[in-house]
Design a protein that fits this description.
This protein has helices at 4-19, 29-36, 39-48, 57-68, 71-78, 83-94, 101-107, 127-136, 139-161, 167-174, 183-189, 211-218, 230-239, 246-258, 264-277, 280-290, 297-312; strands at 116-117, 123-124, 164-166, 197-200, 203-206. It is mainly alpha-helical. It is globular, with a radius of gyration of 22 Å.
């Protein structure tokens, strides 16, 4: 399982892999592979797929292509791809386009072998990949993939707002959109290499959670776990913070107005993360010091006021996802 830092590194690597193919305009996957990788790299890739590489690089590329375009491999590689990335992939299938930076990161969720980038920076999908996708993406698979995508949203929400929770809580989160009774079947259907969470003795938690942190979580107050609604789970897992909450909308406006060179979504996610941990001082220090941002006296007073408002409307890990103020509304 990868740590958050390792996942970010892998994401940047995936984007680099996509960019490295930008000189390629080809109609077939094997041609893309042969033009993008050395014979040695292709042989190594073939071995990872359980193949015995045979012949020169172009022949090995054809071996890999046949394997990756099989129904089983397409479904395996796309099972854990989120809805937004599937939408971007299918858009490129219909017509190649130049992606924005945000859209490029959506493509980074895909196995890069299924796409290429042209000389004009357009993302395209090889013709034989289109055929393989149409054959593999039947109704049953797409339904399962959507459920897996929702499970990842629920796991992300659980991780950031509760840290760890019983199976029943994960099932309740999942049940805000699909049948709660199938939740754990969907959880266990996710291949281990894609899942950073583990089910240990009926408790769901990040695999990297230290024994010390686990013990601390087990000693939390005897409170009920939070009961968020579907829209909050969707917005939080998609945007990285509770984007419909008015106090966070006010913070976003502050960042956009006073820190126009900074990415407001990144600042909001970082702020939300520290507030959920119960560390408001770190949220402030992260803005002032971590990013090298200087706030004027008036700006700092305004930010502290907005931070206080957001803190009151942030679910706390130490309170099992509940708010500091019991009167704060559940979604």
């Amino acid at each position: 399982p990868l740590s958050e830092e390792e996942q970010l590194t892998a994401l940047h690597h995936a984007v680099s892999n996509i960019r490295s193919q930008r000189q390629i305009i080809v109609p077939r996957m094997a041609d893309t592979l042969a033009a993008s990788y050395s014979p040695k790299e292709l042989r190594e890739e073939a071995k990872k797929l359980g193949l015995t590489p045979e012949g020169p690089g172009k022949d090995v590329a054809r071996q890999i292509s046949r394997k990756l375009r099989s129904r089983e491999e397409v479904q395996k590689n796309f099972l854990c791809v989120p809805d937004e990335s599937i939408a971007a992939f299918e858009q490129a299938m219909r017509k190649p386009f130049i992606p924005s930076q945000e859209e490029l990161f959506l493509f980074a969720a895909l196995n890069p072998h299924y796409i290429a980038i042209s000389q004009t920076d357009q993302i395209l999908v090889p013709e034989d990949v289109k055929e393989a996708w149409k054959e593999a993406a039947d109704e049953a698979f797409m339904t399962l993939r959507k459920k897996v995508s929702w499970m990842f949203s629920c796991l992300s929400f659980l991780n950031y707002t509760m840290c760890m929770a019983p199976e029943s809580v994960l099932a309740e989160l999942y049940g805000t959109k699909y049948d709660q009774a199938e939740a754990m079947d969907i959880f266990h259907a996710i291949p281990d290499q894609y899942l950073q969470y583990a089910d240990q003795k009926g408790m769901i938690a990040d695999r990297s959670l230290s024994p010390k942190m686990r013990k601390l979580m087990e000693e939390r107050p005897d409170l009920e776990y939070a009961h968020p609604g579907r829209s909050e789970i969707e917005q939080t897992s998609r945007d990285g913070y509770p984007s419909s909450e008015p106090s966070y909308q006010a913070l976003r406006m502050f960042f956009m107005t006073n820190l126009p060179k900074e990415d407001p979504s990144s600042l909001l996610h970082e702020t939300w993360y520290y507030l959920a941990l119960g560390d408001a001082s770190q949220a402030l220090n992260g803005i002032r010091g971590g990013h090298g941002i200087q706030l004027g006296e008036g700006q700092q007073d305004q930010f502290l006021h907005l931070l206080s408002q957001a803190n009151a409307h942030t679910r706390k890990i130490s309170l099992k996802g509940n708010y500091l103020n019991p009167s704060a509304k559940e979604s």
